[in-house]
Amino acid sequence: GIQVEQSPPDLILQEGANSTLRCNFSDSVNNLQWFHQNPWGQLINLFYIPSGTKQNGRLSATTVATERYSLLYISSSQTTDSGVYFCAVDAGANNLFFGTGTRLTVIP
Amino acid sequence: EPEVTQTPSHQVTQMGQEVILRCVPISNHLYFYWYRQILGQKVEFLVSFYNNEISEKSEIFDDQFSVERPDGSNFTLKIRSTKLEDSAMYFCASSENAGQPQHFGDGTRLSIL
User: Fold this and answer.
1) Closest residue of A to B50, CA-based?
2) Strands across the sheet containing B5-7
3) DSSP for residue B97
4) What's residue B2's pLDDT?
5) Is A35 in contact with B101 (Cβ distance < 8 A)?
6) What is the mean pLDDT of residues A54-58?
7) pLDDT tens digits, one per residue of B72-96
8) Quick one: A30 exposed, middle or buried, by C-beta within 10 A (0-12, 13-18, 19+)?
9) Contact assessment for residue B16 and residue B82, using Cβ atoms and an 8 Å cutoff
10) Measured between beta carbons, which residues in chain A are less than 8 angstroms from residue B101?
């Protein structure tokens, strides 16, 4: 099956700092989503971005499908941004393969 | 904004018992999914459902598991003869169509004792 790798696995930031999370995938995809899993376990859908660039407030994402990677940018981080960020891809079977996530901790 | 709802939020069950996890997908969505996440691990696909039948399933989804759409709104996951290793968070999701964004519920935390 498709391989999804995320980096870094762990990230600690001072509040107000910026960060970039990366997702590499091993095959062409027709769906790519970024999720934030909060401390209560909820999966919050951040972006549906099989290609191109999108922005939503302090967050933005870019997927370069031809090079098989996606980036999630977090600017001016806040403590509420803490949690695990997952990239998930669908290679055509209409099911999402999740990466192992990046655990982000934002300290005041 | 419409959302996927799951009940119960937490289920505690004795090993060997059967459990039914319930989900109400977004009303105009056609595809429904179940995923699970063992504590501290990544989210894993279990099964997808379309037009009243299973369209894809993973190796995890063996004869112990079944899904059903008993009426026009509910989508259920049944786990028979539960084992300790079935303890996990189970997420339901739905999408408008194939390849479209999947919207996740808040999950049911299943604890097998």
Assistant:
1) A94
2) B5-7, B19-24, B75-79, B65-68
3) S
4) 73
5) no
6) 97
7) 789 999 999 999 999 999 999 999 9
8) middle
9) yes
10) 31, 33, 45, 48
